[in-house]
Design a protein that fits this description.
Blueprint (H helix, E strand, L loop, with lengths): L1 E7 L4 H10 L7 E7 L2 E7 L12 E2 L5 E9 L2 H8 L10 H12 L9 E9 L2 E6 L8 E5 L2 E5 L9 E5 L4 E4 L3 E4 L15 H18 L7 E4 L4 H13 L4 E6 L4 H13 L2 E6 L2 H15 L4 H17 L5 E3 L4 H5 L13 H10 L5 H10 L4 E3 L5 H7 L17 H6 L6 H4 L6 H4 L3 H9 L4 H10 L7 H14 L4 H4 L8
Helix pairs in contact: 2-3, 4-5, 4-12, 7-8, 7-18, 8-11
Length: 494
């Protein structure tokens, strides 16, 4: 996990320095730059793999190509074994694997990568940039004096016009432009499996493999534990590989999430830590949360507050965190999905999964990186995503008791306490006990007249007083951003 900055069209050391300074939290361990012709590359490093020799940019043997990477490649050791007879490696990093893979396969190198990534390669004057399939790692671009600028966070693009999201599953070449290399798998009737026992077995096997891959690290690894189904499953699998597993929770005193997380931690025997906060604590960090989050979307901000708190706690003990993001999208875990019939449920799940990059994944990335730790999301492993979308839609419809993710629950029967395994879905902020508290506080701070007047004069749809409160803070930092292009909007059920 790191931050990258790229300028195509000019050598501009001062501008690149400014961009990198805005993202220093993403890479406190080291930094590096590269300038050649009209190309400028910058890298901020959070050291996770090969702590001693992994400084970037990393060059090929001839020195005519180099790379900067934000993210992790989980199959890099397998790729190393394939490439080692053809290339001389100077490091033990996943980053160097990519540059040699690029030498062998060109732009098709992305097809061989398993992980979360945004990287930029300089190749004899050409620049090649790629973003991972789901968009777990962030990347944006804009224009300044006609020069393209790329950066891991929006704040680094201040001064640019027409700031946009670099689309997930896409590459960019300074010669050929953008090209899509991945799209979410559509339901393939020939691959459907209807046998429940077989499906639950596959789910457990594939998710276990995804977690195991994401435990590769040269620094301590932990897990965010809300006490809900998804994070509890991840914690269970991790405990099998790490007997000294650290788990972290955050919430109001005696909130449902804290109580449930304690039960799971006790059951699994983890080293468990809690961050207990109140309304004053929330108000004390809300400005920082919005600054790092780069959004004013009310449900997203609300859920980011406990995310910010728990990341702060975890940063004292670990440098890598696994989370349960993605399960609700793959297995129909949200309450509103109960209203979808079998003919339309899969399309909706595809839609919300495709939008994860600027909603829940944005929250996960920004809140962890605000405290210089790396967030990993096993549920969004491409192999697991493919499996999930080949499950017949009928088997994703909530049961007669309106309980969703039934197959996922059955896959891990006997692995967790029954009250956790069949615990109903709660929003992150609700489970942490903070949702109503901050909404009620804001309700008294903004009059109805203020709300309607500012809403009428805004270029974006401000849906509530709470959102207006966040929007004011957001605009104090990001008044240069075209909100429509970069802002994800989550569903608000309030």
């Amino acid at each position: 996990m790191c931050g990258i900055a790229v300028i195509i069209g000019e050598k501009n050391k001062e501008r690149l320095k400014e961009m990198m300074l805005k993202m220093k939290h993403r890479g406190p361990d080291d930094k590096g730059t590269f300038f050649k012709g009209d190309v400028s590359l910058g890298h901020l490093r959070l050291s996770i793999i090969d702590l001693n020799t992994g400084k970037q940019p990393i060059f090929n043997e001839k020195g005519d190509k180099c790379i900067v990477l934000n993210g992790e490649i989980y199959n890099f050791r397998t790729l190393y074994d394939v490439l080692k007879d053809k290339h001389n490696f100077s490091t033990k990093t996943d980053t160097e694997v990519i540059i040699h893979l690029y030498e062998e396969y060109g732009e098709n190198c992305v097809d061989y990568l398993e992980g979360m990534f945004c990287f930029a390669i300089y190749d004899n004057g050409k620049v090649f940039i790629a973003r991972d399939r789901i968009g777990i790692k962030p990347l944006y671009f804009g224009y300044l004096n006609g020069r393209m600028h790329f950066a891991s966070e929006i704040k680094a693009l201040k001064g640019c016009d027409n700031i946009e999201i670099f689309p997930p599953g896409n590459t960019y070449s300074s010669i050929e432009g953008f090209k899509q290399y991945y799209s979410l798998p559509k339901l393939n009737k020939s691959d459907e499996c209807h046998d429940e026992d077989e499906l639950t077995k596959k789910i457990k096997q594939e998710l276990t493999a995804a977690v195991e891959k994401r435990m590769v690290s040269d620094v301590p690894v932990g897990v965010f534990l809300s006490g809900g189904l998804d994070s509890s499953i991840i914690a269970y699998i991790m405990k099998e590989y790490n007997p000294d597993l650290h788990t972290f929770s955050a919430g109001f005193k005696n909130s449902p999430d804290l109580i449930a997380a304690r039960k799971v931690a006790d059951y699994l025997g983890t080293k468990h830590y809690e961050y207990v906060y109140d309304l004053d604590d929330m108000l004390g960090v809300i400005t920082d949360v919005i600054y790092y989050l780069e959004s004013f979307d009310a449900p997203l901000v609300r859920s980011s507050i406990p995310g910010y708190m728990v990341s702060k706690l975890a940063s004292k003990y670990v440098k890598v965190i696994l989370t349960g993001e993605g399960a609700d999208e793959l297995f129909s875990g949200y309450h509103y999905l109960k209203d979808f019939d079998v003919e339309h449920i899969n399309a909706e799940l595809l839609r919300i999964t495709a939008n994860l990059h600027n909603s829940n994944l944005q929250r996960t990335d920004r809140m962890t990186m605000a405290h210089s730790i790396e967030g990993r999301v096993p549920f969004l492993d491409p192999n697991f995503v493919k499996l999930a979308f080949n499950i017949p839609p009928m088997q994703k419809i909530p049961d007669e008791n309106n309980i969703g993710k039934v197959l996922l629950r059955k896959a891990f029967e006997g692995c967790l306490p029954e009250e956790i395994l069949w615990r109903t879905k709660a929003k992150f902020s609700e489970g942490a006990g903070s949702s109503d508290s901050i909404k009620e506080y804001i309700e008294d701070k903004i009059t109805e007249n203020e709300f309607f007047m500012e809403r009428a004069n805004s270029s974006v749809d401000i849906r509530s007083k709470e959102e207006l409160f966040y929007y004011r803070i957001y605009r104090s930092y990001y008044d240069y951003v075209d909100d429509v292009k970069v802002l994800g909007r989550t569903r608000d059920f309030n």
